[in-house]
Amino acid sequence: MLFLRTTVIRHFAYSKRRLATISQDASSFRIPVIDFAKFRATKSEREKKETSNEIVSAFKESGFIYLTGHGIPTATIDSTFRKSKEFFGMPSEVKDKLAWEDPRSNRGYVKVGRERVTQSADPSEIAALREKAPDFKESMEIGRDWDSEWKNQWPEESDAPQFKSSMLNFYQICHDLHVHIMRSIALGLQLEETFFDDKINDQCHNLRLLSYPPIKRSLLESEGQARAGAHSDYGTLTLLFQDSVGGLEVQNPHTGDFVAATPIPGTIVINVGDLMARWSNDVLRSTLHRVVAPPAKQISEKETVTPARQSIAFFCNPNFSAEISCLPNCGKVAKYPSVNTGAYIVGRLAVTYT
User: Fold this and answer.
1) Fewer CB within a 10 Å sphere, N or C end of the chain?
2) Residue 4: per-residue pLDDT
3) What's residue 306's pLDDT?
């Protein structure tokens, strides 16, 4: 009896400690706001390290940050949003001529319901999910414009004036910011600041314009339905520009609960992708996230409709020729085998679209 009582007491004490740890982990989950201006402006190694340590610490804990002081003018972001809205406002027959065709290209227009983002890698499972609950969004995918093999799908200038020039300018601006953030990560991981420079200089990125049309709330309440299902991203980092509507949610890895990543004016939401997590041997966290419907407007006694939402995502990738394997200073035993960037990303894309 004494043995049993002692065992129960020990188990109870362990349970309390475990619950306390979980509670502490859950309450400490947050997406920090980090000012990048000092890193961009200073030549002081100490000041750069301070910002680098903040960023790497956040990526270890939550995998997400809000970045201020990023150097992209508000006017440039606003203009890009306007051009994106103009594009999606074009007639369907014009947009459909630019249809996305091939995962190796990953360029062109994706109509509502064609994509189903998920963590599954099973083509049949994804096909079933897509049939049952496609993502309620449309997108335009843009890659580097000088690619000799795969070409961007641009609308006619008469249909979308200055769309091409605006997007190519924004693409380059985002790549340049990506280089600086990767330099900060290198310093935060005790590597040379320029460690990643020659591994990302081919600019094998993806600029994705996203439009979430208004939709009746009842359609989003079907089993498994979402504006964009829970998923992680594929590459190194994602730079996300949100409008004021909101809807992005990030999963607390300690509890499984989803936490709203409420839009903060002047910030970019930045998160770690799967290849960056593999590169760092999971030192940096690639966190699940999703897009849900914001509060809806009543249109009848029994029905509400969600507002339209816009966002712009810049998916940063290593060079497609790069082999991703455990970085120095990220553990003695690699958790993952080496993987080629191009093969990995194309493989993930191939099962995502119809």
Assistant:
1) N
2) 38
3) 76
Domain-by-domain residue ranges, the chain?
Answer: 30-350
| E-strand stretches of the chain | 33-35, 64-68, 108-110, 138-142, 206-212, 228-231, 237-242, 248-251, 258-260, 268-272, 289-291, 297-298, 304-305, 309-316, 323-324, 339-340
Q: Which residues of the chain have pLDDT under 70?
A: 1-28, 114-135, 216-228, 295-299, 302, 353-354
Q: What is the pLDDT of residue 304?
A: 72
What is the rounded end-to-end Cα distance, in angstroms, of the chain? 64
Judge whether 312 and 210 are in contact, CB under 8 Å.
yes
Name which of 275, 322, 321, 320 is nearest 106 in CA terms.
320
- Of the candidates 161, 148, 123, 54, which has an alpha carbon nearest to the alpha carbon of residue 353? 123
- Cα separation, 177 vs 99, in Å, equals 29
- Host H or E run for residue 16: helix 2-28
Q: What is the pLDDT of residues 88-105, one digit of tens each?
A: 999 999 999 999 988 889
> Residue 67 in contact with residue 270, Cβ under 8 Å?
yes
Does the 30-350 domain belong in CATH 3.10.290.10?
Answer: no
What is the pLDDT, as a whole number, of residue 335? 96
